[in-house]
């Protein structure tokens, strides 16, 4: 590549506007250096040998080595164990040892060095938010997915679902090959047979449709092209996305501004956030992006802190983070928003054009009588709204409404009301952004309804990776309708309910095996490239369609989907205006993972939406049911992933199950006890589910999350965990978006005599009298003590002094930032080969998580405040566990770490008993896939991380502070003749945290971030008393410290813990 | 009295003998040895390889540097073995009449990789990095183990240049590793406590 072209590429990256205001979007295209992200190695684009040449030119190679670049071997630890190659014992002379083999490469791929990880940039497909990811591969196998540091959506972080992507890739129950229906059964067949038969059948059909989930990037256009090639209209493409938030927001913006589009929410610049039943930190529309923004805009920094006010009836993970949380009556969201709009209109200084204000005033006038009475119906006084309206106009702020815990007839109306409020506070252009650029909304509102009404005429339907039989309420009769369609082909990854109706079940590639792209924000493109060949006999859905077309002799001019993308990206190339060749451009984009230029545009004038406010909803007064999406399993599409099942719900900590969440007072009034099975009845259905007290839930609400209750017996992991609450919902839809209603269903609850134990990870939510587990400071206290420093590592004691080296590793966890999403738990499990143990073992208290997420409630049971606290091994300098180990299996190293040596451990479990933090985990079994009866799962032998020892039965284990990563960083530093720098090592939990709550580094380095955090006034160590009052608690001197949560107000009548004297 | 003493002596002898035979049984390799660990009888391990590759010829007589073939050693935990393509780089011209070369060529043409038997093998709970040992530098950028890379290889792998087919040279056991790690460096200043040559905490290698 010439110098000029490199400059061009760099210019391409400079954008007129910054995507994340904090400046995180600084990603010039760089020339590739070793260790950076690589494009797909296998089949490079033609005509790009110069780029490859530059790869080699950058490597510091000796002449001999240059000759030997083809030399390669597979290392035992990296590859043979991954493949599960059995070690055959042989006897050679008197030696008894396992015989292991090294298989040589025939020809070494250029970007592979045995034992060195190769990273590929790609795009996650876990949800529609399309985070950028970097996939670490070793020996050609993906071993870890991490957030792409430079990608503006993920900004280096990733949620739990993204982390669990690997488990889906290596899942033993993935469909192994194409299947065809023979009577009741699905029999294996070959791809040739499949294509031949499908093409033959489709050739004779008049009306063919395609149903997809939310297709990303160009896939939507691709499907349309396929349909038109089959002689079908574009309207034969149907989409189905169970997360109705997308459709309702998009639809409301279509009504208001004429464009079906989602705004980008810049929470990082919002100092005041108002959430009205919003779950933006939870399942929402872009949890990682919002989590990053929220922690920047909201968490304590330099004496300042944002404010978050939530109005909700369910207790969501998002609401748990609120500084002020108001419990409202179910179904009152629209009224709450309009009351806020009313207060904003009355407030001097509120924004909005004359016409907009006129329209809003008209609507308020029209509903004056309703709104006058609404304060009582909602359950909140007018002064609250007035104060909020005043504050909203004082600072950059945003109002977010709607989420999966409220999806009723008025979901779109709620979004329209929120648009009014945002217009009045001037959010559009400040915290809510629209960009120029082509972007069709991935989901078309009302498509499921359209499919059901058109299904009569359909002769054939191709379903791509979506399962409406499970994720739509049964009252919509999707199953019956699909059964009536004569020919259904389902392309999916795992066995699910679609198997019952499909003629052909075809295995789809995992997204790590596929080409693709996504457009998370208009004008911004993210590339997806395969990092591994198909691990089963599967094919990419788009390629399957191309093959079918080829067999129908109506082929498109593309060899595969990649070729299609290549053609389509020409448009993006033209828009970019770069002068480098198209091949170079594609190569650079693939390598870097994304390209884009954002141009914020102003929104159009508000259209006339008066008609949408003719009627307003009445809040419900009887007991009603809501079924939010599960924050891990979503609509149930991830119910087969043990790592997500076992991470549990963040609020209740319940794993592997469905529960009915009640307000504790409601349970008492109705005589329901914790763990008692109740019958929940509606006019259309009835389920039995276990009652569980969730403080903070409205008294008239029963919360039964979706996600579990799959009925396909071929999937042993998702089968029969909990129940599906959707059969209780009447066939009803959001008035404007046509999405099925999944909340505010009138129900009856009948108590039964049965009891059932729910496997909750945390047995208590009460801290009791202890003041040194969770600490809180008010903002005023922190301002008073702004310059005061702490010294956590020196307390008066009689212990002998520890040996110390040049490093002392420490970790700091900011409780003010932690939102309790639990991505750290899942990232840790994936990185450290932590097994999943199943419900029965969790009931016995045998969880294996190296990090657990403790959740404590404070205050009123009707509206408590929650604090989340990730707890891992605290790496105490005076560790109680080390003193009791009879075999020196756990020892202290000179870098401040508490080392666990598995091969020494004999399993006395003395250490676990001595540990005051309860973080040590004992392997009661050798957990592996294949013993599904016992629910002992995880560990596909191929799926383990080769850098971490796999533990077997009888061994104690615990958090190692990702010592493998420290060693890797040290090896690199040593080779370069320097010390390990700050942020050279990032632990798995720190790396993935969307809130940046976790910091890790060398405490002895005075310039490191950790050393400034560890001496911060907020810093404290758990169970180590109150140093301000010369109470030193257990004096364990942990290397892990916490940063106290920050409250905006002084706790009334309570002495501030840890305040300075 | 004498009789009693004789009994005691006899019993003691029996106990001693059974004890020692038990110890003999315990420490002698055989069927009962745990095959997941290595033992002190490991050096000299000399398995049959698919090709009787001679290090003596290649590294000794022809003086090919170790890292010509094991090129990953300097930048990876693993030293690696050459791909068949590397072998063929020379052997498409050299000694094509020999039987092993014909075997190699045939395998290469069939795209069928060779399964070598691993000689230097560590248990799965040990992490060893070639890069850290070969390329270890001090803070002044000086190579700790000397400039002659081939000499560094020889330190653990033995006089490879003199071996026809390779056999394990060193025990590769923890005590043997520690014997180097535990050596003291020259103290930085006179009177200062000398530091270890390398770290000896458990999690240096076990994690």
Structure at a glance:
The complex is a heterodimer of chains A (1061) and B (207). Helix content of chain A is 26%, strand content 18%.
Mean pLDDT of chain A: 84
Structure summary, number of beta strands of chain B: 1
Q: What are the low-pLDDT stretches of chain A, counting only 5+ consecutive residues below 50?
A: 11-95, 930-939, 1053-1061
Distance between the termini of chain A: 65 Å
From the helix content, strand content and strand pairing of chain B, which structural class follows?
mainly alpha
Strand arrangement within the widest β-sheet of chain A reads 9-8-20-19-18-10-11
How far apart are the termini of chain B? 61 Å
Please, how many helices of chain B?
8
Instruction: List the chains of the largest interface with their residue counts.
Output: A-B, 67 and 65 residues
Rg of chain A, rounded, reads: 29 Å
Q: Tell me the series of helices and strands of chain B, N- to C-terminal.
A: HHHHHEHHH
Tell me the Rg of chain B in angstroms.
24 Å
> How much helix is in the residues of chain B?
25-40%
Tally of alpha and pi helices of chain A: 31
Oligomer description = heterodimer
CATH class annotation of the largest domain in chain A: Alpha Beta
Beta strand % of chain A: 15-25%
CATH architecture of the largest domain in chain A: 2-Layer Sandwich
Would you report the number of β strands of chain A? 43
Largest sheet of chain B: none
Protein model, in words:
The complex is a heterodimer of chains A (1061) and B (207). Chain A is α/β, with parallel strands linked by helices and 1061 residues long. Chain A has five domains: 32-169, Single Sheet (N-terminal domain of TfIIb); 179-241 and 442-514 and 530-559, Rossmann fold; 264-434, Dimethylsulfoxide Reductase, domain 2 (3-Layer(aba) Sandwich), CATH 3.40.228.10; 624-755, Barwin-like endoglucanases; 776-793 and 805-1047, Alpha-Beta Plaits (2-Layer Sandwich), CATH 3.30.70. Chain A has 31 helices and 43 strands. Chain A has a seven-stranded mixed sheet, sandwiched between helices. The longest helix of chain A is centred in the middle third of the chain and has 16 residues, at 561-576. Chain A is globular. Chain B is built from eight helices and one strand; from the N terminus they run H-H-H-H-H-E-H-H-H. Chain B is flat. Chain B has one domain (40-204). Classes of the chains: A alpha/beta (1061), B mainly alpha (207). At the A-B interface, helix 3, helix 4, strand 2, strand 3 and strand 4 of A face helix 3, helix 4 and strand 1 of B.
């Amino acid at each position: 590549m010439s110098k000029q072209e490199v400059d061009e590429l760099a210019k391409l990256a400079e954008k007129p506007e910054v995507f994340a205001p904090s400046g995180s979007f600084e990603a010039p295209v760089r020339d590739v250096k070793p260790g950076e992200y690589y494009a797909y190695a296998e089949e490079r684009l033609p005509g790009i040998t110069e780029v490859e040449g530059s790869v080699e030119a950058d490597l510091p190679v000796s002449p001999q080595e240059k000759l030997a670049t083809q030399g390669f071997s597979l290392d035992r630890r990296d590859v043979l164990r991954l493949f599960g190659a059995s070690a055959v014992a042989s006897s050679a002379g008197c030696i008894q040892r396992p015989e292991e083999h090294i298989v040589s490469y025939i020809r070494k791929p250029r970007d592979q060095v045995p034992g060195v990880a190769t990273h590929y940039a790609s795009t996650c497909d876990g949800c529609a938010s399309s985070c950028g990811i970097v996939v670490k591969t070793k020996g050609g196998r993906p071993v870890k997915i991490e957030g792409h540091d430079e990608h503006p959506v993920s900004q280096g972080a990733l949620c739990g679902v993204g982390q669990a992507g690997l488990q889906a890739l290596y899942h033993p129950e993935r469909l192994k090959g194409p299947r065809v229906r023979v009577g009741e059964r699905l029999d294996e067949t070959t791809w040739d047979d499949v294509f031949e038969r499908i093409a033959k059948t489709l050739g004779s059909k008049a009306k063919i449709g395609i149903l997809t989930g939310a297709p990303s990037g160009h896939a939507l256009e691709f499907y349309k092209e396929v349909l038109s090639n089959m002689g079908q209209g574009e309207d034969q493409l149907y989409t189905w996305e169970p997360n109705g938030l997308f459709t309702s927001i998009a639809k409301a913006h279509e009504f208001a501004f004429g464009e079906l589009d989602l705004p980008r929410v810049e929470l990082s610049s919002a100092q005041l956030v108002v959430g009205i039943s919003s779950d933006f930190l939870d399942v929402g529309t872009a949890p990682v992006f919002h989590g990053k923004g929220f922690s920047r805009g909201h968490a304590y920094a330099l004496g300042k802190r944002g404010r978050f006010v939530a109005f909700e009836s369910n207790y969501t993970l998002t609401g748990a983070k609120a500084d002020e949380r108001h419990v409202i009556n179910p179904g009152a969201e629209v009224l709450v928003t309009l009351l806020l709009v009313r207060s904003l209109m009355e407030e001097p200084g509120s924004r909005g054009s004359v016409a907009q204000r006129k329209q809003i005033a008209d609507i308020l006038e029209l509903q004056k009588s309703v709104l006058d009475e609404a304060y009582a119906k909602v359950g909140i006084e007018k002064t609250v709204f007035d104060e909020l309206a005043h504050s909203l106009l004082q600072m950059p702020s945003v109002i977010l409404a709607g989420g999966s815990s409220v999806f009723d007839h008025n979901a779109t109306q709620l979004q329209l009301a929120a648009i009014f409020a945002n217009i009045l506070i001037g959010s559009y252009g400040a915290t809510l952004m629209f960009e120029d650029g082509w972007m069709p909304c991935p989901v078309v509102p009302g498509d499921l309804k359209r499919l059901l009404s058109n299904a009569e005429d359909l002769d054939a339907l191709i379903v791509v990776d979506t399962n409406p039989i499970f994720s739509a309420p049964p009252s919509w009769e999707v199953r019956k309708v699909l059964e009536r369609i004569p020919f259904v082909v389902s392309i999916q990854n795992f066995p699910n309910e679609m198997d019952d109706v499909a003629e052909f079940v075809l295995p789809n590639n995992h997204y790590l095996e596929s080409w693709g792209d996504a457009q998370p924000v208009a004008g911004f493109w993210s590339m997806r490239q395969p990092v591994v060949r198909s691990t089963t006999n599967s094919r990419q859905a788009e390629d399957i369609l191309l093959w079918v077309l080829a067999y129908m002799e109506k082929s498109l001019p593309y060899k595969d989907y990649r070729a299609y993308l290549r053609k389509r990206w020409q448009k993006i190339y033209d828009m970019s205006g770069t002068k480098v060749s198209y091949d170079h451009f594609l190569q650079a984009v693939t390598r870097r993972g994304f390209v884009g230029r954002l141009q914020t545009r102003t929104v159009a004038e508000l259209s006339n939406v008066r008609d949408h406010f003719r009627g307003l909803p009445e809040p419900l007064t009887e007991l009603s049911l809501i079924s939010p999406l599960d924050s891990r399993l979503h609509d149930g599409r991830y119910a087969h992933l043990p790592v997500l099942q076992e991470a549990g719900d963040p609020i209740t900590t319940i794993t592997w199950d469905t529960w009915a969440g009640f307000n504790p007072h409601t349970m008492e009034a109705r005589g329901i006890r914790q763990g008692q099975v109740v019958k929940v009845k509606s006019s259309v259905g009835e389920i039995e589910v276990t009652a569980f007290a969730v403080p903070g839930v409205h008294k008239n609400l029963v919360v039964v999350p979706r996600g579990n209750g799959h009925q396909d017996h071929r999937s042993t992991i998702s089968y029969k965990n909990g129940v599906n609450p959707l059969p209780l919902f009447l066939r009803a839809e959001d008035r404007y978006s046509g999405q099925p209603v999944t909340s505010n269903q009138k129900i009856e609850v009948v108590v039964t005599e049965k009891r059932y134990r729910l496997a909750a990870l945390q047995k208590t939510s009460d801290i009791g009298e202890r003041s040194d587990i969770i600490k809180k400071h008010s903002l005023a206290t922190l301002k008073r003590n702004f310059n005061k420093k702490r010294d956590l590592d020196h307390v008066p004691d009689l212990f002998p002094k520890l040996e110390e080296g040049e490093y002392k590793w420490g970790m700091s966890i900011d409780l003010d930032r932690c939102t309790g999403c639990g991505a750290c738990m899942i990232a840790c499990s994936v990185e450290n080969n932590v097994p999943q143990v199943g419900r029965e073992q969790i009931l016995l208290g045998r969880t294996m998580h190296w990090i657990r997420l403790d959740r404590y409630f404070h205050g009123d049971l009707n509206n408590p405040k929650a604090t989340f606290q990730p707890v891992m091994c605290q790496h105490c300098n005076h560790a109680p566990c080390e003193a009791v180990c009879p075999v020196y299996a756990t020892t202290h190293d000179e870098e401040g770490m508490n080392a666990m040596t598995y091969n020494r451990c004999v399993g006395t479990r003395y250490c676990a008993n001595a540990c005051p933090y309860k973080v040590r985990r004992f392997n009661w079994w050798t957990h592996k896939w294949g013993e599904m009866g016992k629910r002992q799962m995880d560990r596909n032998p191929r799926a383990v991380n080769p850098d971490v020892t796999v533990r077997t039965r009888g061994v104690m284990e615990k958090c190692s502070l990702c010592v493998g990563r420290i060693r890797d960083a040290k090896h690199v530093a040593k080779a370069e003749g320097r010390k390990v720098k700050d942020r050279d090592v990032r632990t798995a939990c720190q790396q993935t945290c969307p809130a940046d709550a976790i910091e890790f580094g060398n405490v002895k380095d005075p310039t490191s971030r950790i050393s400034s955090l560890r001496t911060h006034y907020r810093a404290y160590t758990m169970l180590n008393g109150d140093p301000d009052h010369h109470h030193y608690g257990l004096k364990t001197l942990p290397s892990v410290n916490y940063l106290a949560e920050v409250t905006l107000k002084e706790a009334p009548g309570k002495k501030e813990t840890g305040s300075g004297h | 009295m004498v009789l009693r003493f004789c009994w005691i002596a006899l019993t003691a002898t029996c106990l001693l003998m059974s004890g020692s035979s038990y110890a003999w049984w315990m420490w002698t390799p055989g069927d009962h040895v745990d095959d997941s660990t290595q033992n002190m009888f490991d050096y000299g391990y000399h398995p049959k390889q698919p090709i009787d590759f001679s290090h003596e010829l290649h590294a000794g007589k022809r003086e090919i540097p170790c890292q010509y073939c094991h090129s990953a050693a300097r930048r990876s935990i693993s030293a690696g073995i050459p791909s068949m393509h590397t072998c063929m780089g020379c052997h498409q011209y050299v000694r094509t009449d020999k039987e092993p070369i014909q075997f190699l060529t045939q395998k290469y043409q069939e795209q069928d990789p060779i399964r070598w038997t691993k000689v230097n093998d560590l248990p799965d709970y040990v992490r060893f990095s070639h890069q850290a040992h070969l390329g270890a530098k001090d803070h002044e950028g000086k190579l700790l183990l000397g400039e002659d890379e081939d000499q560094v290889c020889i330190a653990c792998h033995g006089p490879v240049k003199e071996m026809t087919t390779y056999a394990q040279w060193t025990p590769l056991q923890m005590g043997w590793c520690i014997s180097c790690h535990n050596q003291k460096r020259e103290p930085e200043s006179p009177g200062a406590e000398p530091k270890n040559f390398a770290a000896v905490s458990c999690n240096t290698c076990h994690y």
